[in-house]
Description:
mainly alpha
Amino acid sequence: MLCCWSNIIYAQNATSVSGKQQAMSAFESGRLSEAIAHFDAALLQNPNDYEAFYYRGLAHRYLKHTQQAFGDMSRSIALKPDYAPAYYYRAKLQPYLEPQKFIADISKAIQYDSDNADYVFERAMRKYRAVMDNYDNNDQNSIDVSKLSFAMDLCDDFKKAASLDTTLQEKADSYCASFQALMQQYQVSTDK
């Protein structure tokens, strides 16, 4: 009887791999709806495949199915809590939510992949945008520092991103200088 169960398990795994391979082929070819259907089938066979959830989430993201993509990225993270790309793309799905939620996810991605310049630069940019949004929302007359404490170290992130990828140096310097000038204008200390 044991031989029969091992054959069934082997057949299920083979089907899952085959379905995932078809899904990846469709995904890589840009046939995203087809890829989603294949990922659905693969996940029926192996509901613990964090990569299948991740790639299905990416396909949903590219098709602008934000809720489905967010759910798939969250499921991928639940299955593999140290999977940095899932945190990164889940963060990118929520740019209009509270900046702290975005930064929490992107910080997790950095925690698990600290040498990824894109992750670090993206976190710095979100902090920068939060500062500029705060400035714009206050009629450019003041800065509400109480809402920006999480962003005060954005120049550190820009510097780290530029050290990881020198092609980012000019942008990083420019954004950091702009931030520092704004903080100086309102006499806000950026020291830790």
